[in-house]
């Protein structure tokens, strides 16, 4: 019995202890729940406090904005409401006085509160389904077809207009084929040592500057008979062929031969061989060799006949020196009509004739520079002609080089001569640049103008034989009119022509004291001083 009682007691004790442990666990759980609820409550309180703070802040900001708005509105309304004053006349009319309104009194002042603008609803456009539904309606279909038709009609109209403009526009004239010797002036050197130590060095230096060198291989270089005599001409011509082959292989770009009228008529077969050696060496325009002939013939018909019979590329003659201004127009017209300008060459001085300044005088250097640069063909100058170098007892004077060092210490006559050389050089450079870039001067046709209606600036009328005027005309480019007066007094030329505009712009005048370049001038009354010349640019006009 005692054993069983003991067992029961122990079970009761164990049950009691189990209940106690469960109660403890329950208490712990309740404590945790309480702590969790407390934390949540504190978080919610903090959140609520933050929300209240933000709301108060927003309310405060809104209140301030509304107050500022109201103050602004009140200020604007008060500015519009100004006190009005009026005059009250006395009943008896004896006196009048202005009675101001009582302080604070307003004349029809009404406080109006302007409501805020109601925000308009924004149009968001049609949805895809609505757009498709509307696009298929007959009205929109007809509209699209009409707009498409208008587009194509407009495009075809513009295309047709462009085609009509192109067809009606005058075609640009293609420049004629020109060799390198037609592009710029030829410059004759009498003394190689004035420019280089020897001929090979000079040839190399010339080619580095993209220039060309023509060698004078006239057999009797310094004699009166270029080919010695008719008896020895055959032998000399045979020997010349080997010399031509040698120098052409050395790189010279052409050959000049004097007395071509004699050799071409006395030994025509040998002359044909000489021409073949030089002219048939290359067909490329840039590397083609030039054959320059020299003749003492001076009339226009003789020069034209020799140019045709000799077959030279260029012919230097005494035409400009023998004919004189009185016959220039006739000779120019003859040569230009009989030969292309690519075969014409113009010169005044030369190896045997001397320098330009010695032939025409220092005052005529600029005038004849203008003449040579503006004639249709290739201008040929002797060395030193660009500065007005004069012969000094010989036709091969020493070349003068003006440098800043040499100009120091000059005075009197030497200073004047140096200034004149610089002036001639400036005119030469201006004309050379114009001829290089102006199509009218490079390829233009020659249009002779008659200065017969010119009148003298003095009481005595100048002879028309001392006057010359012509225009260079090329396609739609600017025209250039050159006028020369070799008379002893100034003249007023009437150079009007249907192909020329009546007014132009002065480009160059050999008279430095006359009009400045860029001055507008009238071709109907062009004043040219005695012994002077002018170059005028005339715009193209239909």
UniProtKB/TrEMBL annotation:
<dbReference type="GO" id="GO:0015180">
    <property type="term" value="F:L-alanine transmembrane transporter activity"/>
</dbReference>
<dbReference type="GO" id="GO:0016324">
    <property type="term" value="C:apical plasma membrane"/>
</dbReference>
<dbReference type="GO" id="GO:1904273">
    <property type="term" value="P:L-alanine import across plasma membrane"/>
</dbReference>
<dbReference type="InterPro" id="IPR017853">
    <property type="entry name" value="GH"/>
</dbReference>
<dbReference type="InterPro" id="IPR042280">
    <property type="entry name" value="SLC3A2"/>
</dbReference>
<feature type="compositionally biased region" description="Basic and acidic residues">
    <location>
        <begin position="8"/>
        <end position="31"/>
    </location>
</feature>
<dbReference type="GO" id="GO:1903801">
    <property type="term" value="P:L-leucine import across plasma membrane"/>
</dbReference>
<dbReference type="GO" id="GO:0015173">
    <property type="term" value="F:aromatic amino acid transmembrane transporter activity"/>
</dbReference>
<keyword id="KW-1133">Transmembrane helix</keyword>
<dbReference type="InterPro" id="IPR013780">
    <property type="entry name" value="Glyco_hydro_b"/>
</dbReference>
<feature type="domain" description="Solute carrier family 3 member 2 N-terminal">
    <location>
        <begin position="112"/>
        <end position="187"/>
    </location>
</feature>
<feature type="transmembrane region" description="Helical">
    <location>
        <begin position="145"/>
        <end position="167"/>
    </location>
</feature>
<protein>
    <recommendedName>
        <fullName>Solute carrier family 3 member 2 N-terminal domain-containing protein</fullName>
    </recommendedName>
</protein>
<dbReference type="GO" id="GO:0015190">
    <property type="term" value="F:L-leucine transmembrane transporter activity"/>
</dbReference>
<feature type="region of interest" description="Disordered">
    <location>
        <begin position="1"/>
        <end position="86"/>
    </location>
</feature>
<dbReference type="GO" id="GO:0016323">
    <property type="term" value="C:basolateral plasma membrane"/>
</dbReference>
<feature type="compositionally biased region" description="Acidic residues">
    <location>
        <begin position="32"/>
        <end position="43"/>
    </location>
</feature>
<feature type="compositionally biased region" description="Acidic residues">
    <location>
        <begin position="51"/>
        <end position="77"/>
    </location>
</feature>
<keyword id="KW-0812">Transmembrane</keyword>
<dbReference type="Pfam" id="PF16028">
    <property type="entry name" value="SLC3A2_N"/>
</dbReference>
<dbReference type="InterPro" id="IPR031984">
    <property type="entry name" value="SLC3A2_N"/>
</dbReference>
<dbReference type="GO" id="GO:0015823">
    <property type="term" value="P:phenylalanine transport"/>
</dbReference>
<keyword id="KW-0472">Membrane</keyword>
